[in-house]
Amino acid sequence: MRVKNINGTSDNTCKCGTWLDHWKKFSGQSLPSYCPASACLQKPEVGAHVQKDGSTDTSWYIVPLCKKHNGETGKSLNIGDSVKFASANVGATCGKY
Predict the structure, then answer these.
(1) Strands across the sheet containing 2-5
(2) Which segments of 1-97 does DSSP mark as H helices, in order?
(3) Most buried residue among 17, 49, 51, 72 by CB atoms closer than 10 A?
């Protein structure tokens, strides 16, 4: 799946503490050993805000990425299909409680 980082989301917050914790809670997955960006061997350190690239789906999602790939804005990244997307919409996730 190809994704693009969304610029200007660092001020967004949720009740989970961090966006990486949000991803773990709402994806139902444990943190992968490596950043899911193709051929990356770094550890995922952040929950990155992304949109699916080349899709009519304009929703925002959280995926785990290393800091290097999280900083690559405006560039399309190919991430592994095994990583689930967690909705970044707090009104439909952690903000409901």
Answers:
(1) 76-78, 2-5, 46-52, 61-65, 86-87
(2) 19-27, 67-70
(3) 49
Number of domain units in the chain: 1
pLDDT, position 97: 62
Its domain, for residue 54, covers 2-90
Amino acid making up residue 80: G
Q: Residue 17: helix, strand or coil by DSSP?
A: coil
Residue 95 domain-assigned (yes or no): no
Q: Is the distance from CB of 22 to CB of 63 less than 8 angstroms?
A: no
Structure tokens belonging to residue 42: 């770094």
Model-level pTM? Answer: 0.92
- Tokens representing 36 are 């899911």
> Is 43 among the domain residues?
yes
Q: The tokens of 82 are what?
A: 């095994």
